[in-house]
Amino acid sequence: MLQLLSQTGQGRKIFLKGKARCGLHCQAVAGQQLHTVLCCREELPTIYKCPYQGCTAVYRGADGMKKHIKEHHEEVRERPCPHPGCNKVFMIDRYLQRHVKLIHTEVRNYICDECGQTFKQRKHLLVHQMRHSGAKPLQCEVCGFQCRQRASLKYHMTKHKALPLEPPPGTTEGQAVKPEPT
Fold this sequence. Notes:
This protein is of the alpha+beta class.
């Protein structure tokens, strides 16, 4: 069976080298799609691209594309948060619902088995559980610093980027800078 390597914006499909059921060896030739459909009766993978100009959304299934079009192109309207004093506005209902659940309610359905601490989101529970196990799955490629959260690693990396990129004015590379007399 042939594998779809990519699909160009013009509707052409580019195939990896492969052997069709009939024995034909294929090498990204223009007539490959027609050959596959007519001779081998193989179903080609279908990729659904959003028809709206400027939109780059792509889906494997028609249902996903329909949902995308409905949410992003047809039923576009502002959905303000109903809580007094909250000025957040959302364009998609499920984003508003998630916001209300996480910000405006105290529901904490995720409970740590070891200490009983509760969390609003599963991902927060998983990071917390790493404290009990001692796991630190993230590591700095520069110095080997280890941590549990991407935000911690990102903050840590700013320390490496704080090194001067250019020598101070009036010096050459490798030259020490004399302190100003006080």
